TrEMBL record:
<dbReference type="InterPro" id="IPR001155">
    <property type="entry name" value="OxRdtase_FMN_N"/>
</dbReference>
<dbReference type="InterPro" id="IPR051799">
    <property type="entry name" value="NADH_flavin_oxidoreductase"/>
</dbReference>
<keyword id="KW-0560">Oxidoreductase</keyword>
<dbReference type="GO" id="GO:0010181">
    <property type="term" value="F:FMN binding"/>
</dbReference>
<keyword id="KW-0285">Flavoprotein</keyword>
<dbReference type="Pfam" id="PF00724">
    <property type="entry name" value="Oxidored_FMN"/>
</dbReference>
<dbReference type="InterPro" id="IPR013785">
    <property type="entry name" value="Aldolase_TIM"/>
</dbReference>
<protein>
    <submittedName>
        <fullName>NADH oxidase</fullName>
        <ecNumber>1.6.99.1</ecNumber>
    </submittedName>
</protein>
<dbReference type="GO" id="GO:0003959">
    <property type="term" value="F:NADPH dehydrogenase activity"/>
</dbReference>
<feature type="domain" description="NADH:flavin oxidoreductase/NADH oxidase N-terminal">
    <location>
        <begin position="18"/>
        <end position="357"/>
    </location>
</feature>
């Protein structure tokens, strides 16, 4: 067990060791799905590094069935966060192979998450964002994002080609699958949401038209990698604001709704998707950026469970539910009820990289308690709450990548200073924009 200080005792057992066979015929060794977190380990050249290799080797040896990388952007001029990797061609193939080899040790699957930020790209790293529709972002965070240019049909076709090309390179490098990011307010989610997509051509208007970009991307990726290569899609349950309790149904007015999300999932199932990663939140900060720590985790529980129960009777394709899994009892309950086929975990693995082994191999039945991240200065916490949390967990991942143990006692101020040192002023820009009020 990597970090005893983060755990409390509980009693339960979970069937997480069972293998899962995906629709494409590939079998995953167990039900632990390490969800994507931005590692922020790339330099200005957007290339993968030895730090990626060391971090993913640690996670692979920790026992997860699937490791999903942080955002890998399909265009180096369109980044979503500081430290993103971008893969447009084969110039970094040698290091990509080292990264994939490390992430697939111990019989682990390592899937590359491929993405385009659209308008959700801070002006400090991209003064010329692209989006389904033009229009300046309003609200208190508007000045952090440049006004985007509406994509032309030719640009849309180019981005579709880029997704397919990045997936092809991932497969060539030895990654064993890809996840298409269609959630959290990035480009594909922007096409899906009528709050962002005001187009009047074949990519706007009706749900079928708004989903066309995602379907075109999926089909192009499938053609590039073939029928036996896993393709997952991360999709929002709805455009739900962060202020809404994540286990209650409450669609954002005029936004992408739960009914629309289920329809899109059914279409993806018919197209041959291998797994759907259920998530939520877009214009407000996503749920993973909250900094209430273990107290808030216990109050909230596992995210999006009510929506997952709705999906259960609608789909046969495997789903993974990410967010709020902290103990074996919740994992066991979700698997036994059939509301998820994989246990999505992100932040706990930045503190306990070998958590899957602790539960499967060692029979540990405890709970991971995440600390409340704070600088100790309320105005700073309020101003940089989401950035503070992201930076704190990035710092823990950097420690693992350097061969150090995670340290849950590091304070929020140190995390902010770390982010500024790593990324300069771009570190203080919101990673995701705040929504319209």
């Amino acid at each position: 067990m990597t970090n005893d200080t983060t755990m409390t005792t509980a009693t339960s057992a979970v069937p997480t060791a069972e293998p899962l066979t995906l629709p494409c015929g590939v079998t995953v060794k167990n039900r632990f799905y390490k969800s994507a977190m931005n590692e922020a380990l790339a330099g200005r050249d957007c290339a993968p590094t030895e730090a990626h290799v060391r971090l993913y080797r640690a996670w692979a040896r920790g026992g997860a069935g699937v490791l999903v990388t942080g955002n890998v952007m399909v265009d180096h001029t369109q980044l979503g966060e500081p430290g993103n990797v971008a893969v447009e061609d084969e110039r970094d193939l040698v290091m990509l192979r080292r990264w994939a080899a490390a992430g697939t040790e111990n019989g682990t699957h390592c899937w590359m998450q491929i993405n385009h930020p659209g308008r959700q790209s801070p002006v400090t790293i991209n003064p010329h964002p692209l989006a389904p529709s033009a229009g300046k972002i309003d609200g208190e965070y508007g000045h952090f994002f440049a006004e985007p240019t509406e994509l032309t049909r030719n640009q849309i076709r180019d981005i579709i080609r880029r997704f397919a090309n990045t997936a092809r390179i991932a497969q060539k490098a030895g990654f064993t699958g890809v996840e298409i990011h269609a959630a959290h307010g990035y480009l594909i989610n922007q096409f899906l949401s009528p709050l962002d997509n005001h187009r009047t051509d074949e990519y706007g208007g009706s749900l079928a038209n708004r989903a066309r970009f995602l379907f075109d991307v999926f089909d192009a990726v499938r053609e590039a990698v073939g029928p036996q290569f896993p393709i997952a899609v991360k999709l929002n349950s709805s455009d739900v604001p962060i202020a809404v309790k994540v286990n209650e149904r409450n669609d954002a007015p005029g936004g992408f709704s739960e009914e629309e999300s289920i329809w899109v999932m059914k279409q993806l199932e018919a197209r041959g998707v291998d797994l759907i990663d259920i998530s939520g939140g877009t214009y407000a900060k996503p749920v993973i950026q909250t900094n209430g720590g273990a107290v808030e985790d216990r109050r909230r529980g596992v995210y999006f469970t009510d929506f997952a129960r709705r999906v259960k009777g609608e789909l046969s394709v495997p789903v993974t539910l990410t967010g709020g899994f902290r103990n074996a009892a919740d994992m066991n309950r979700a698997l036994s009820e059939g509301i998820t086929q994989m246990i999505g975990i992100a932040r706990p693995l930045a503190l306990v990289p070998d958590l899957p082994n602790c539960i499967i191999r060692d029979g540990w039945q405890g709970s991971v308690d995440l600390p409340r991240v704070t600088t100790g200065i309320k105005p700073l916490d309020k101003a940089f709450g989401g950035i503070l949390v992201i930076s704190w967990f990035e710092l823990q991942m950097h420690r693992i990548a350097r061969g150090h143990r995670p340290n849950p006692h590091i304070g929020g101020m140190r995390a902010l200073l770390f982010a500024i040192k790593q990324h300069g002023p771009a570190a203080l820009a919101p990673r995701r924009r705040k929504g319209r009020q």
